[in-house]
């Protein structure tokens, strides 16, 4: 059962004030501006000066330090990611949420299903999926609704961040890339998965759920891994921690191997071959040796290789 969370007294329960979470930063800033305080000296003044910005520049470090709640961070930072705003305008993405209570998500999805003429019976199936995930430690972000029956039905989705993102992610760029990963899923659900001549929409014969899950994850990890690699090539350093990048590459390799070696029908095989050919700019190859090594060959206007392995 979900419970209310307290974050070192930083965040007020009511969030409607000026449409922003009331944190110590903007609360102190409002008091100082109202009192006409223009300048302060010394260390106390420097701290208070940092608190009076019209729009706090929240960072993941703020969340880890207990200065800003995860909910406030997700709300503000997601609103500054252009790709998220674009998807909201296009109708693909409804909103970005942080760890909603089950009854709140149920209410949102009930309205969403009603507006989009979705079978109400699917609501319980979606809530079962969400309830199972919420009771475990799996994942740091997801989209809902995400049932395969809705693929290609032009039903918008909610992006949901879970509490685990605070510990799992290390930087704001990792948060942004995680959001972009989920946007790939959002697009695939809304538009259906298009690969070559194929268009996966809803339940189709000869295409298993496990195949679609691995296909969807391959597409999302390809986008994120490509962006990290391109950032590395442009600057000479990784834009994220090595741990994050290696995790994405390991997942990419896992889903690639599934599509390459585990297709069960002719149509799955044809879709897999088309997708792997499309992603020939990033090819993993399993190697022999301790730690399950995998070489990833990047071919974006040149060629680089990374070898990753388990510790």
Write down the overall mean pLDDT: 83
Distance between the termini: 36 Å
Strand percentage, roughly? 5-15%
What is the number of strand segments?
A: 8
| Number of H/I helices | 12
What is the ordering of alpha helices and beta strands? HHHHHEHHEEHHEEHHHEEE
Rg over CA atoms, rounded to whole Å, is 22 Å
Output the structural class.
Answer: mainly alpha
Write out the strand line-up for the largest beta sheet, numbering strands in chain order. Answer: 1-3-2
Largest sheet: 3 strands, mixed
**Outline:** globular
Low-confidence parts lasting 5 or more residues at pLDDT below 50?
1-56
Question: Could you outline the blueprint of secondary structure elements for this entry?
Answer:
Layout: H1 24-34, H2 42-49, H3 60-64, H4 70-78, H5 82-90, E1 93-98, H6 102-115, H7 121-134, E2 141-144, E3 157-161, H8 165-168, H9 172-191, E4 193-195, E5 198-200, H10 209-235, H11 242-261, H12 266-278, E6 282-286, E7 294-298, E8 304-308
Parallel strand pairs: 1-3
Antiparallel strand pairs: 2-3, 4-5, 6-7, 7-8
Helix pairs in contact: 6-7, 9-10, 10-11
